Model the fold of this input.
Amino acid sequence: IFISKLLFSCSSPNFIIFLADDLGYGDIGCFGNYSIKTPNIDNLAANGLKLNHHLTAAAVCTPSRAAFLTGRYPIRSGMESSNRNKIFFFIAASGGLPESEITIAKALKKKNYKTAIIGKWHLGNDCVKKGDGCHHPLNHGFDYFYGLPLSNIKDFGDEGESVVTTYSPNFYSYFSLIPILGITLCMMIYKKHKVCFIFLGLVLVIIPIFIIIFSLNLKIINSVLMENKKIVEQPIRLKGLTQRFVEKASNFLEKQIAGKSPFFLYIPFVHVHTALFCADEFSGKSKHGRYGDNVEEMDWAVGKIMEKVENLGFLNNTFVYFSSDNGAHVEERGKNGQREGGFNGIFRELWKPSIHLHYTRTKIEYRLDILRAMNRTHIEVHG
Done:
């Protein structure tokens, strides 16, 4: 595993993982895009190792992230599905990453690391009842959590877009016809079949109306921002969210100055998954519209956090990893087609004491190896 082959000149290294959301392979400068400005991400590649064939375990969020954090195929932890929908779509879903799984954070906690996740989790929240938090990040080795227990979906934005109509464009039209049909049938049978009238009224009128109202309010239901296990925003104010992530990450890093323990900081960005959003200072600045604005804001966040790492004196003792949970979809076949667009992700890492600077590997690498690599790294450091 490539990480374990690095030359270390210090004890217990710190770890920082930046994980973008649905970032395309060719959407940053160090992988050939010269029209979207990503100087800070490019700097990681220029001063570290870049992998040109770095594969994910899945083409969508939930199974890919589960595999990444556990080093196991997602099907082994029950985080893969044969259905079309392979992710958690509702915050109230009872599924999630089992507590028995060993994550990167759990493995490092055993070695006295301080751990934090700031960003998107999307691996479940509660099990049996609201608030039990059995799938929550704090139950998977993290000391601190600030971010989204679910994900960022189109409904959270201000453009009126919906993930429901993305998959089923005529969803509301069809469901609107059902109550009309139900009312018509009820009027026809009311006098002779009152029991059937009540049943049809429930099935063909009330239930479809409830589903429509529920679907139209996904922003209120699912848009939740948490700090540890406390809800701090519902719905989430997307504008300025990246800046808040940077602030929380900086606060965590500053607290590590006084402590003697190494740290693991996991930053799974909300960018560049839809809904697209950014602060005013980045809006309209990219040549690639709102998507490009989002990429550039994320790059800014990487730069600010790395600046903090350097100012606090952590840089020479910190392994930095940047990648995406999965790649962008390929227009011809979608995310789960044969064209591998959702599977071939980007990767670059920075490790100052490394003998390999500005080094590129074209060999196939698998993202499941990151946990074993980090664990073995710590063992080799201590001899």
Notes: The mean pLDDT is 81.
